Amino acid sequence: MSFGKNFSSALYRSIDQAKHSIASAIRMDVLPPTSASYGRTPIYSLTSARDVEQLATGSDADMGGASKMQLGLDSEEGKGRFYGTLSTEVPANAKLERSGYAAFRNRTRATLFGAQTWDATMHPYLRLRVRNRLAGPPSGEVSNNIAAKVRSAHTTPSIQRASAYTRAVHALGLDRANAPGPKYFVNIQTDGPVTSDLFQHRLLLDERKGNAWQDVIIPLTDFVLMNTGEVAPSQIGMMREKLRTIGVSVVLESPSLDNLKPAKTDNSRGSAPDALRSQTSSEEGENEGAPQVAKGSRRGLKYNFDLGIEHIEAISDDALIEEGITIEQH
């Protein structure tokens, strides 16, 4: 993208943001448009070609790996489709030690005053409308009225006060029996001072719903802070008022927690970068990879993945309750 086009886009977003601020001041709004009174903050949808153009993609292939991925619209449904083949093969001339990941996220929305962000202060949950296109038909009777059961973000003190290791095990789904194959993660970057910081959580789909569309709801407080592919030993809360990028990654191996265990004499280990982490040196971060995979991954494995995705939004407790979604208290 040329400098002129980048500047024009930034100028347009700056003017648009200023117009919204002026209109809000004229109306003397007490609460911002992203407040709980609105129930939800749309992040982005994938229902048009223009929507897809606003997203950045990346995989191990950008660094010489053998995985293949595509992000587009399904020809029949007209909704987003993130699909391809993950491979653990590492060619001799590749610039990485481990392979088997792909990801997408929204492009950084630059303005003349800095990056545009989403404010999810009053919206404690992230909801993704997705489906596993490779799964079979739904099994059993799954109520359409109850989209999901989630923990309340306000009533999970055990998770919030737990050690970094315990929080990571929970957030990354390492406390579950995982069959070999692709694993999806949700990745969030805030407009914080450390560009290598990334908040991550496993995207767990209800297997009973098979290939049907379903809502996956994740408390934002359950995300775990990652840095350069590893779980940060010191966990800090997410800056929910400034969400810069949100995306999904798929990997063959879950992140390793070795750095949270007692130190060993041999500290030599490779690392793969976080999933499409935005950097100041490269706005789109196409060469960023996925979470660091476990040491000793087997070579020559290949798995297909195919995720349908319609939209992502931040949502409030009240909006979930109005929809009849059970919020499970702990």
Automatic annotation (TrEMBL):
The record's GO CC annotations read: mitochondrion
Example GO biological process:
mitochondrial electron transport, NADH to ubiquinone
Q: Do you know which InterPro entries this protein is assigned to?
A: NADH-UbQ_OxRdtase-assoc_prot30, NDUFAF1
In residue numbers, the region (Disordered) covers: 258-296
Give the Pfam families listed for this entry: CIA30
NADH:ubiquinone oxidoreductase intermediate-associated protein domain location is: 46-131, 177-251
| The organism's place on the tree of life at top rank | Eukaryota
Task: List the molecular function annotations (GO) for this entry.
Answer: unfolded protein binding
Q: What is this protein called?
A: NADH:ubiquinone oxidoreductase intermediate-associated protein 30 domain-containing protein
Q: Which species expresses this protein natively?
A: Meira miltonrushii
